[in-house]
Amino acid sequence: MTDLSCEEIKAFVPAKDFALSCAFYQHMGFQIAWQMIDFIIYDPSGVLWRIGQSSDDG
Known about the structure:
This protein is an alpha+beta fold. It is built from 1 helix and 2 strands, in the order αββ.
């Protein structure tokens, strides 16, 4: 089996005020990631997996 190491963990949460949420997380030290290539799958028990990679990775 291929080694599946984790490089990042990202939270996807709904926001009533997107600008306020961005400022909050940036203040905590998180970085905004753009240009992502991603897809989602549901496993047999209904868990949603979102898998992605930065499109600027060489």
